[in-house]
Amino acid sequence: MTTLFQDFQRIIRENEPLSSHSTMRVGGPAALAAFPTCADELSALIARAGEGGVRYIIVGNASNILFSDRGFDGLAIFTTAMRRVSWNGSAVTAECGASLTGLAAAATKKGLSGLEFAFGIPGTVGGAVYMNAGAYGSQISAVLTASEYLRDGVIHRREAADHAFGYRTSVYRSTDDVILSAEFTLTPGDPEAIAAKAKQNMESRRSKQPLEYPNAGSVFKRPEGAFPGALIEQAGLKGLRIGGAEISEKHANFIINRGNATADDILRLTETAQKRVYSQFGILLETEIIHIQ
Ligand SMILES: Cc1cc2nc3c(=O)[nH]c(=O)nc-3n(C[C@H](O)[C@H](O)[C@H](O)COP(=O)(O)OP(=O)(O)OC[C@H]3O[C@@H](n4cnc5c(N)ncnc54)[C@H](O)[C@@H]3O)c2cc1C
Questions:
Q1: Beta partners for 95?
Q2: Which fold has domain 85-208?
Q3: What is the DSSP string of 174-203?
Q4: Taking the domains of the chain in order of start, what are their residue ranges?
């Protein structure tokens, strides 16, 4: 496999521990990990993987991913080196690997409103569009005007209305398209009010979420009319530990890594919560975190 990617040596690593790239700090090695710096490199890597029959995955900041303990036996393509951002008045185009929180901070400095919700979401622009990331009453779909994506080596543009956005989903979840960049239109506003709202959101996160431990955000999606954290807490599971993983005492919809958790520990806790909530309340919780194996 390494020979196949020989001419990409500058941007490729062998046996790369996925744990050091995921916010959960869990996961075995990827046979190969690549860090393209532009769309051409990304496209060439995918083409080469196709020629060699090598399995590949696209990864942003792995803040919504649980990698397996066995790792990944193909090519993990990380987008985090593709992070150019260009502003044009109140519009901004950001490459897929740009930090969402970084973009929100830049918007705040410019007195532009619309991304205050995104403060503290530790993902990339690509991951956020893919998931339609959201918080505090807003989401990516409220500010996105278009995205560019790669399909079969060709770059296409998709307008906002064609993204099939829903709760933590977009059209990208049902395709193999790779998001290259996204365009957002923000609204000029009072810089102080924007900064205050962003600060308030960040403080609310710090007080409610176990940010002091590695985690991958909300484990379960919100079912209609209920909150997973409350259901898990009422089922008496707060603080439950399996191996090095724990259902957070601070927020029961978070599983934290107390230092030596394995993906297996986390999956077993996830299943326990799912089963107990179902047997007690008849509600089947659906996972938000994506398990890659
Ligand atoms: C402490 C914490 C708080 C969080 N709070 C929130 C929150 O408030 N709201 C929220 O919605 N989420 C939240 N999350 C979850 C996560 O940060 C978001 O879902 C984020 O948008 C994921 O971005 P990422 O770059 O990390 O994507 P990854 O986790 O790397 O990938 C997620 C999925 O997107 C795909 N993907 C990534 N980039 C691309 C691309 N360029 N093209 C195609 N597919 C791609 C991957 O293949 C994968 O299937 C939180 C996570 C943590 C750890």
A1: 181
A2: 3.30.465
A3: GS--EEEEEEEE-EE--HHHHHHHHHHHHH
A4: 3-78, 85-208, 228-292
The structure tokens listed for 216 are: 């991958």
> Does ligand 1 lie within 6 Å of residue 195's CB atom?
no
Q: Whose CA is closest to 126, among 103, 108, 109?
A: 103
CATH topology of domain 228-292: 3.90.78
Annotation marks residue 168 as catalytic: yes
Please tell me the distance from the alpha carbon of residue 44 to that of residue 166, in angstroms, as a whole number: 31
Active site residue 25: no
User: Is residue 241 annotated as a catalytic residue, yes or no?
Assistant: no
Identity of residue 237: L
C-alpha 94 to ligand 1 mean position (Å): 16
Q: β-pairing, 91-95 with 290-292?
A: unpaired
Q: What's the pTM value of the predicted model, to 2 decimals?
A: 0.96
pLDDT digits (tens, 9 = 90+) for 125-166: 999 999 999 999 999 999 999 999 999 999 999 999 999 999
Q: Which residue owns the Cα nearest ligand 1 atom 51?
A: 217
**Tokens representing 108?**
């705040």
